[in-house]
Amino acid sequence: MQSAPSVLRAQNLPSASVRRSAASRHPERPSTAFDVLITADHEEADPVHSPSDSLGHELARPGLSWSGTVDYGPGPLHAPTSVAELRLLVGRSRRIRALGTRHSFSEIAASDADLVTLAHLPADLEVDIAARTVRVAAGVRYGELALAAAEHGLALANMGSLPHISVGGASATGTHGSGDGKRSLSSSVRAVDLVTAGGDLLSLSRDEDPEIFDGAVLALGALGIVTHLTLDLMPAAPMRQTVHLDFPSESMTSEGLLTMLAGGTSVSLFHHWDGRIDQAWVKQVVGRDGELPEQWLGGRRSRRPVHPLPGLPADFCTDQTGEPGPAHERLPHFRLEFTPSNGEEIQSEYFVAREDLAAALAAVMPLGERIRPLLHASEIRTVAADELWLSPAYRRDSACVHFTWKQLPEQVTALLPEIEERLAPFAPRPHWGKVFTLDPEQVRVQFPRLADFLTLRERLDPGRVFTNAYVDRLLGE
Ligand SMILES: Cc1cc2nc3c(=O)[nH]c(=O)nc-3n(C[C@H](O)[C@H](O)[C@H](O)COP(=O)(O)OP(=O)(O)OC[C@H]3O[C@@H](n4cnc5c(N)ncnc54)[C@H](O)[C@@H]3O)c2cc1C
After folding, report:
1. The domain made up of 126-236+446-461 is a member of CATH 3.10.20.340
2. 293: CA distance to ligand 1 center in Å?
3. Pocket test for ligand 1, best of 66, 77, 103 (most atoms within 8 A of CB)
């Protein structure tokens, strides 16, 4: 049983508005049915566990990741239906982690103790048209959020490749899309409500808590269970997407890469470590970005829709014809209403300084012959610098070197150290939700605000209710 923590006081958390529940103050809490353990009956109703969930991917029970490669542990998995239930659950839990939509490939969400899904909480989607913000429950998927915003003529600044990922999970890990001027999705968050140790509900905002807010959004689930987030929106503008194919080898020079990546609001380049770019997916704002010619930088416009992974049908991909459409139907690579991608994969991704991109790729290129047999495809994207303490793009305009691997975990983890060694001169920062084998020390030195984050965690979670082996290893405990 947790006692109410003394850290959650206004004097300890400047400007934080702290609301306490009666339950969190009482040492003895009645045993109620609030914490719905996953039972046979409950599983029937749980969208996360349904065999026919929107990903069309069967998830083994009680807990495997979307890819099936991460076992979240023995559980139990709780599924509260209200914030009040969640607070009671957290208040009496010795250790607990949240699960989002389970799209991470690392063990970031795994736990040997309690797990909780917020999939049964109401979506609570509230668009504020005047303020251009949306408040939403953490378990809501980006695609649903974007649809609600679009109904009011508003849009998210950016989206990841997949619209099926939860806002809470993506924000916790720094999930990103692409775009020289586009920051991580977590950067759009302007307020969070989280249940902290003992079951307290803490509200933090960018405006009222500037000293700590940048440490509290992208927090790897280590500060508490986020119940709601408020995100910035922008006026919706129609977008178009086109794909160009088969670029010459000059495409891999620094100038070639940076020119391609600047070809639209959001650009993704796909390649197979053979010294050239196979596909450039260019997403442009209609009326602002100049339409690309049929032949562009040596690549030719694709006349048929393509999937980024060779051999897969493009039916699930977003429109590539150049037809204008809403941003949420052009920015992601995959359509919300269809199975998005092959689950038989593993992903790794490293952020380097944008100006180092070509050199970083050249350093890894000699491993191409060993990478290719394990690889579906590699993607290159850009992310603008942000201020979030644990963001892989912290104060560094970044390029992301991404691998979608075949599901060969042993071979992949055997090769990663060699890739990481070659990337080492470029100070790589890993994507927290993807697989890497970097030494934790090597990771820690890449995050100059880590000490501040650890101080914040000490104040919010001195008993380490929200930790797990992944967080302990990487943060150094
Ligand atoms: C097909 C595919 C495509 C992808 N595309 C991209 C992409 O374009 N860009 C990119 O950057 N990444 C991408 N990813 C990776 C993915 O976006 C991240 O791993 C993301 O964190 C997954 O979110 P999730 O909701 O599945 O969270 P989970 O994987 O379930 O959890 C991730 C972390 O978030 C924490 N968490 C979840 N919910 C909460 C909460 N309410 N409160 C506190 N902590 C919480 C968990 O404890 C865990 O630590 C992709 C993954 C897949 C499978």
Report:
1. no
2. 36
3. 103
